[in-house]
Amino acid sequence: MSEPRTIYLKDYQPPAYWIDTVSLKFVLDDHDTRVQATLSVRHNPAREVGLPLRLYGVDLTLKAIALDGQPLEEGRDYRIEGETLDVLSVAEQFELTTEVSIDPAANTALEGLYRSSSMFCTQCEPEGFRRITWYPDHPDVMAAYTVTVVGDRASLPVLLSNGNPIESGDLPNNRHYVTWQDPFPKPSYLFALVAGNLEKREDHFITQSGRKVTLQIWVEKQDLNKTEFAMGALKRAMRWDEDTYGREYDLDLFMIVAVSDFNMGAMENKGLNIFNSAAVLANPETATDAAFQRIEGIIAHEYFHNWSGDRVTCRDWFQLALKEGLTVFRDQSFSADINSAPVKRIQDVNFLRTHQFAEDAGPTAHPVRPESFIEISNFYTLTIYEKGAELVRMLKHLLGPGDYRKGTDLYFSRFDGQAVRVEDFIDSLAEAGNRDLTQFMRWYSQAGTPMLEVSDEYDEGAQRYRLTVRQHTPATPGQPAESKQPLHIPLRLGLLSEQGEALSLVIEGKALGTDTVVELRDAEHSFVFENVASRPVPSLLRGFSAPVQLQYDHSPAALALLMKHDEDGFNRWDAGQQLMRRAIESAMRAIQQQQAPELDPLLADVVGTLVSTPSDDYAVLAEMLTLPSEQYVAGFQQRIDVDAIHQARNFVRQALGDTFYAEFLALYRQQQSDAPYVPEFKQIAQRAIKNVALSYLCASGRDEGLALAKQQFDADANMTDVRAAMTLLVHSDNSELADHAVKRFGEQWGHDSLVMDAWFGIQVTRPQPDVLERVKFLMQHPAFSLKNPNKVRALVGAFATNRVNFHRIDGEGYRLLADVVIELNRLNPEIAARMIVPLTRYQRFDEQRQQLMREQLERIRREPLSRNLFEIVEKALAAG
Ligand code: B3K
Ligand code: ZN
Questions:
Q1: Which of 197, 222, 246 is the last residue of a domain?
Q2: Per-residue pLDDT averaged across 409-438, rounded?
Q3: How far is 344 from 354, CA to CA, in rounded Å?
Q4: Parallel, antiparallel, or unpaired: how do β-strands 372-373 and 175-186 relate?
Q5: 35 lies in which domain range?
Q6: CA 111 / ligand 1 centre spacing (Å)
Q7: Mutational test site, ligand 1, from 380, 381, 831, 866, max ligand atoms within 8 Å of CB
Q8: Predicted confidence (pLDDT) per residue in 493-548, tens digit
Q9: What domain count does the chain have?
Q10: 381 and 476 inside one domain
């Protein structure tokens, strides 16, 4: 466990030495893998001469080190201190060779080279390469790699690395080797190696310039029948990136490998993407609609990184959002284009507002470009990824699609092969669009969710309507409220008449159509709309044009009007969400005062219209009928009352289910289909609305609802319907039906590790109070392992989202999470630091729960902590 040290963006210095080429030789072995490295090193003329060459290494046993063939002596020629090795007094140009021994089988952190089931694989981003060999492991050091992998021919028949295979052959002792060469200079974090007994699905893609690229998906034999969808998704992504961004793939080979032990979703290593098996493997028997869509998005995301990340990379890790924000925006746009744009936007915004806004409001809030970190692995956050993507989306709003494309073309061509900063991206867009984006840069340095307070005035005599928007950003750790400056915000809006017609917008004599983007730059800004015949209903922040919290006091009737008539699909959904949230809040107040809650008649009215009017978009309708989550509702409470929110939301669901039982039943019956399962949009929409209807039928409390769920579960038509029905059965109060579903599903899918993740998840998210015991019991299940991140997320991570049970007033939910985190701290610090997050968000709970959560944080703090956990726990305790 190393001494935690804070790294600052302001301390950045270009490297003293460049590495032109890296030659690596791996001789694979479980406990004694040998890595020989030859680096050709050249002094960086931008830095002073005579500086030592600084290398980084973690858990390496140094076997040999030589400079231009001369062995070096420790103390005299080089010095090792903690994770650094300084080679003293070196020349302008030289060759450094090292040999180290590493222990992949003991590597449970899943960073560097490690074993996953029968294979060896790597994860180097952000700082895993230093667990493989001594190296100047920073992303601005880019080199061309040649890699030879030696392994046992029988157990490791497939040996992969980045680029193209250039040589292979047999060796004595039943071993063989393959040499790979990657012609594109890359930072060490994009290095990858995979070795194992793997099989492949192969296909090809003809690029826009007519080159043929071989595509391979490598998996363990039993998973070959789960690779077809991913291959199709990859080809769709390659075509889309050519059509939409003009980006063509560059190597002749593109490989994807599925591994079962992986900290994140996937990794964009050059030419050799490594995937968490959950993010790539799927077939119609085992996967849900949501899984197919998620896989398609992640395949695209990693592929898109080839340009936004690999060809143009980050100068330092503070610039992480440069590649992640842009790439998330690109994958979101891809999914929107090939599926349903409104549904994709609704889901992305719902996720951002529920989870990223919570991060902004908590003790680990940070800007999209942080100023400092202790452990960079802790910064693969929703703020970097999701808010980072929103910033790129805003830039596209500000520039318009044509200039945005010109700007990204300029960025990719100007910085190809370079490691750059956020400014380089922004300047490219500013130049292409001839815009001043200086103020926009504040979005990258200012943390927190900006608040927009909107007020309005209607002057009937003058036929004018004035909208006034005030913006401010609340304080976040290290950034007091006074330090926050006004942001440059694109606000998309329209006005509706009282009858719901879209009004033509005129500002300062300029006709703007019925939908426009106005730009905010000042703390307060007013817009005057002319020729407005009667008081309009504003439709604000259409499409969620900026990641802000909007406050405008729409009357319930105005929300109902927007829900029915707004020409913006996103705002129709959002108006409904506001109505639903208010209905839950009012039920909550009644419950807190020990009164009987009542269903808001206006909400009943609009839901009644929705369920009885034929729809042309069932996917959107399913979203519109879904109540906001307990966590989303909690985000609006000053003091979170976990139980009241839970009861109130259940009450609204039950009341709607009861009131519109006949309509939901009709909707459910209409959407039955015998068509063979395909994860295509029309079917996905049908299943979505059918399962929403079923959930209301079950919530109604009538036995027939649960009987239908059991029927759907037993029919076993496809995983989407089975899991939806199983969730309803297992989360119901009928323990017989719940046990039936758990038992049968477990027996049927016990052999399939990915499907079993769902089995764990559904059980530990039940609202019933016996869940804690069940979590403990399931942690002993043979299919569970603390060493496998997917299992930890599926069981412990899912339990922490179970609001009523995780937040049990006896604190046992918190204790269980802390116990797990303490164990994970030793096994896998990156996962430990992710799992602890729910405990750090204690600030708005009642005194008793705050106290209980802090006690667990303090207990964890007394352990010898990894850097990862140290940083999060310190920040959490400091915020209290
Ligand atoms: N770039 C990787 C991040 C992996 C880092 C893990 N510590 C995943 C992605 O964004 O594509
Ligand atoms: Zn990414």
A1: 197
A2: 98
A3: 15
A4: unpaired
A5: 16-197
A6: 11
A7: 380
A8: 999 999 999 999 999 999 999 999 999 999 999 999 999 999 999 999 999 999 99
A9: 3
A10: no
